[in-house]
Amino acid sequence: MGVLRVDTAEALAALGPAWDELYAAAGISNLFLTHEWLTTWARHLRVPFVALAHREGARLQSAALFVVETQERWGWIDEHSYRPGVLARAGVMHPLRPILAHVLLCERRVESIHLHRSRSCAAYAAELRDTLGPFAMLSVRNEGHEARLVGTATSFAEYLASRPPKVRHELKRKATKLHRDAPGVRLHELPSSASGGEALAIIEAVEKTSWKAASRTAIVTCPRERAFYEAVFRLRTPRTRGRLFFSPRNRGAADPASPSCSACSTTTPSTPSRPPTQR
Length: 279
Prior knowledge:
Blueprint: E1 2-6, H1 9-14, H2 16-26, H3 35-45, E2 49-56, E3 59-68, E4 73-76, E5 86-88, H4 97-106, E6 112-118, H5 122-132, E7 139-145, E8 149-151, H6 156-161, H7 165-181, E9 188-189, H8 196-208, H9 211-215, H10 223-232, E10 243-248, E11 261-267, E12 276-278
Helix pairs in contact: 3-10
């Protein structure tokens, strides 16, 4: 029994078989906790990190990857999924506790762990409470982030009704502008047979005509990010399916990779037992 610590992309890659076995035993569907996603992120974006895995014998019981924000402060990598960033075997109680105990006893410079708690998703908050359990020895900041979770079983009208007045007004304003500037616009789904290059071409076409190009935050302006997304679009996991939607600028455009597209979005479905879709 103990906690395994790795902090390089190479060491994380070597954990592949054990991490994959833990992911299968967790019984979840979260692309952002798969070994493929995490090693791709570590290899291409080169953000300082520490991955901690609690093990009993040869099997991992729980694992979490933390971004090293400073020597004194860590945060876990859940900005993409807005779900608690800990992977645990089904049935394990409070899986983050042995990992935090290791931080407290062995990572002496770390003063706080930065966990994103969503104000807007009760399911997220409950999941995080179950993950942490009663643990008050280490400072765990309560950050109020909005969850990027949209229930796909509801209509757009029902979704609007669930949002704050300011958000409802902004969404209605944008919908009115879209129908005025592009009457009859429809979203198309990129076929699952399309290549990652076709998906990336659509996103790049949108970004080149947006403020991202001028501010040099577009994917195409950063070689490391471009390489990261090229690798991401090649990822395939047993319980995760990525989907990309776009609207051609010219109605009836046949080529989905044409730079005439004007908008796109991606979704990652969850398991049927978890209605909210990560977006």
